[in-house]
UniProtKB/TrEMBL annotation:
It comes from Paludibaculum fermentans. The lineage of its organism: Bacteria, Pseudomonadati, Acidobacteriota, Terriglobia, Bryobacterales. This is Uncharacterized protein. GO terms for biological process: carbohydrate metabolic process. It comes from the Bacteria.
Length: 335
């Protein structure tokens, strides 16, 4: 799946393995809700691409893929590996096909072997040498609490394989994230970049839903939801991402369903409206029904974004379930 579609230029960005992972999870979500086999067939095609994208020469998952192997950069991201592993695990649960579980394990082992160091987690490695890429102020090039969402892959793999090392890696990352998450926004001095931080802080909040029965996690969830909601309302009129609304809405709904944090229904309703406003109508099937990436000072972005679409569709479906009095899906279905 392309990282995004340039609307005005009518072209796709390069194929991203991370975004393909998100897409596989989204297609399986649609299959679970509709029983439409075409969604499952598409998810299998995406899963097969991910299995074939694995670079066996250096035992790593590249962050981009091309049919001829030509790419401008050769990197592997810790975050991408976790998203891909979770997607492949969900595909394995649905199909029972061993190759998806095997590749999920490969990604989880690479996360442990190649990215974890004595102090934290390297965000990016060059391939094939697996040399850490220099870090900078951008959240995606730092080691911080957002990485916990990908560390969920370790917890999921532990539940499937019984391998204690996977559980230990998750617990270590959780402990570190709980210690540092409150400082996450202080690392961004530029107000115009706070919205991007909201997106990545949402990953942390999504991840701790997995252990929301723990008192310290419930406190972090309650504080984090308020922090996320406050920043969102403070900056959205200048720059807003559709996915940030969807992430906060999902966290609110699951935290309430798990008995961790009572739902602020008025705030949730606002976030549902804000997310839904980005859904597009178009004669172009590549755009119709998808979600725009966001809006800056009243002007929609030039990007149709697969991740924004996946997050918004799931959040709005969960909101519909809640309003209808239906039980919410298990948190493992989190895209």
């Amino acid at each position: 799946m392309a990282r995004y579609h340039f609307i005005a230029e009518n072209r796709n960005a390069r194929v991203s393995t991370e975004i393909t992972g998100y897409t596989v999870s989204a297609l399986l979500e649609l299959f679970d809700r509709s029983c439409d086999e075409s969604y499952l067939e598409a998810a299998v095609r995406g899963g097969d691409l991910l299995v074939n994208a694995w670079d066996s020469r250096c035992s790593a998952m590249p962050f981009e893929w091309s049919a001829n192997g030509e790419l401008p950069e050769h990197h592997s991201y810790f975050f991408d590996n976790g998203i891909i592993a979770r997607a492949l695990l969900r595909l394995w649960r649905t199909t029972g096909l061993q190759q998806y579980l095997d590749m999920a394990v490969c990604c989880g082992e690479s996360m442990s072997r190649d990215f974890v160091n004595r102090r934290d987690i390297h965000p990016i490695l060059t391939l094939p040498g697996k040399t850490p890429v220099a870090r900078d102020a951008r959240w995606s090039r730092s080691s911080d609490c957002y990485q916990l969402k990908s560390a969920l892959a370790w917890l999921d793999l532990y539940e499937v394989t019984g391998n204690e090392s996977f559980r230990s890696e998750f617990e270590w990352t959780l402990e570190r994230s709980l210690q540092t998450h409150a400082e996450f926004f202080r690392h961004e001095p530029q107000k115009q970049r706070i919205m991007d931080r909201l997106h990545s802080y949402g990953y942390f909040l999504e991840a701790i839903l997995a252990v929301s029965e723990r008192p310290e996690v419930r406190q972090a969830l309650e504080e984090g939801i308020e922090r996320e909601a406050g920043y969102l309302r403070a900056v959205r009129h200048e720059f807003e991402r559709s996915d940030a609304n969807a992430q906060l809405l999902r966290v609110r709904l699951w935290a309430d369903a798990q008995g961790a944090v009572p739902l602020n229904e008025d705030a949730a309703a606002q976030e549902a409206r804000w997310a839904a406003a980005y859904q597009m109508e178009s004669d172009d099937p590549r755009l119709d029904g998808g979600f725009n990436f966001g809006c800056r000072e009243g002007v929609l972005s030039n990007y149709s974004n697969p991740v924004s679409t996946a997050f918004c569709l799931q959040a709005l479906a969960l909101w519909h379930d809640y309003k209808q009095g239906l039980p919410l899906a298990d948190r493992r279905s989190l895209i």
